[in-house]
Amino acid sequence: MEAFRFVVILLFFACYVVTVVLNALASTGKLFENTPSKVSSKYSTYLTPVGWTFSIWIVIYVWLGLILVYVLSLIWRKSAGERLFETSPIADPLPLLFLCLNLILNFTWLFLWSQEWLVASAIVLFLITASGWIALVIFYVRVHEVARDLLEEGKWNMAFIRYIVFNGLETYNAWTSIAFLVNLSVVLAHVSGKSLESSANIPLSLLVGVLALWVPFEATAFDKYGRYGFMHYFVLTFAMSGIYSNEEPRSRGVNTYIVVLMALFAFLILCRSAFIAHRNSHRPQYIPL
């Protein structure tokens, strides 16, 4: 089992490096003639974000790099005479394999998008989003199961897991969720032939529907696992800001929808922050950090 864990960690390292390199080459036009931004401009919709929004990928890959460094450090770090990669939930092969699949799908999407295979791109982006969230949920559950042991190793260790691993993956997953909705909008507008207004309203309504289920679930049944997750609301607010900032003309109805969602997500940031502070004060989880 230890050998298998070690191999999976190395696979995660390889997938991360390949993904970062291919994305960098694709963005500069050195990998494909069509860069992602060129294709996005060609198939613009009411949900296409302004260019600066995509700078979030730099933050995401740096954050994923920090997670990778933490995972690699488990190979050399020891506790009670055992190497931590043998027991740490962050080195669990199952979520790491989902992340490997996620990263492979990530650079697969680059090829599909550059070839303007819009439907296939949307399907792959959905799989990227799903695999990322599955990996994160497994990490949440695995860490909860051994949280007291992790706290005995030091508060900084649990803090790193909560604020770097968990929220780093939340940032990545929230952004790929938005990317899927934008890609879905492209398919609706340029493949299915729906109006630009409908192709924007359908994905936005899907997002609202998911959040209507997620927000109460996150605050109740999932609280013991994901209490310290909060970055998804920042990403959603950032994404709506980028979409709204696009100066391409759009209908007043869609503009209003985007502004309302931007305000809602900003409000959810405040609510989530207050909720975490209140729960830590009145219902501390293990040892509050």
TrEMBL record:
Keywords, sorted A to Z: Membrane, Transmembrane, Transmembrane helix
The keyword Transmembrane belongs to this UniProt entry's keyword annotation: yes
UniProt entry tagged with the keyword Membrane: yes
TM stretches of this protein: 50-73, 94-112, 118-141, 198-216, 228-245, 257-277
Family annotation (PANTHER family): SI:CH211-161H7.5-RELATED, XK-RELATED PROTEIN
Protein name per the record: Uncharacterized protein
Protein's organism: Darwinula stevensoni
Lineage, uppermost ranks: Eukaryota, Metazoa, Ecdysozoa, Arthropoda, Crustacea
